Amino acid sequence: MEEYKESFKEFLKDSRIKKSSQFFKIKLFMEKAKNSLLIAKHLKDIRLKEPKKLFWDYWAITVSYYSMLYSAKAAILSKGYEARDHDAAQIALGYLLVPDEMEKQDLELLNQAYKIFEDEYVKYFEDAKKESRIARYSAIKTYTQRRLEEIFNNATKFIAKISMMLEA
User: Fold this and answer.
1) For residue 146, what is the DSSP state?
2) Is the peptide bond before 51 cis (omega within 30 degrees of 0)?
3) How far apart are alpha carbons 159 and 15 in whole angstroms?
4) Would the CA dihedral through 45, 38, 121, 103 be positive or negative?
5) Which residues have a Cβ under 8 Å from the Cβ of 144 and sit 6 or more positions away?
6) How does pLDDT run across 72-121, given as a tens digit for each residue?
């Protein structure tokens, strides 16, 4: 948490994260996230031979990550901030959404555990961000079906969690 806090302050100072009251964008980002996830599912499940399946997998991973990025932007905006880049989004997620132990206890006491955004979700985001970067910029990397499913499933859980938090 301390790491997120320090980086968040630094990113605010550098304008990589900024205050925002454009809450109308929350719905738009969530719509973009959910539809991107549907596109990722289609890419993941495609069975065409041309182009090679491997290249469809690259894009399934990339689109899965971007679906997470869009929902992260919506969640960050719900807290009154906008992140200008991918790293800033990750820091803002960790700082603004992951509650400390006292906040977790309060939410559990109030029967609002569904509002708890665990650090695990930030790790899903970080992992997908890394794999998306590799898929986009490496000359070649093969993905097992299991790894592709893992990234897609984590994106699905990530978006579902943010959707639940924003609807509350």
Assistant:
1) H
2) yes
3) 26
4) negative
5) none
6) 999 999 999 999 999 999 999 999 988 777 777 766 667 777 777 888 99
Task: Please enumerate in sequence order all residues whose Cβ is within 8 A of that of 129, keeping only pairs 6 or more positions apart, or say none.
Answer: 65, 69, 86, 90
- pTM, full prediction: 0.87
DSSP 114: G
What pLDDT, on the 0 to 100 scale, is given for residue 49? 65
CA 19 to chain centre: 19
**CB of 165 closer than 8 Å to CB of 117:** yes
Alpha-carbon gap, residue 10 to 5, rounded angstroms: 9
Domains in the chain and their CATH numbers? 2-167 (1.20.120.330)
Q: φ, ψ for residue 138 (rounded to 5)? A: -80, 150
Alpha carbons 140 and 122: distance in angstroms, whole number: 27
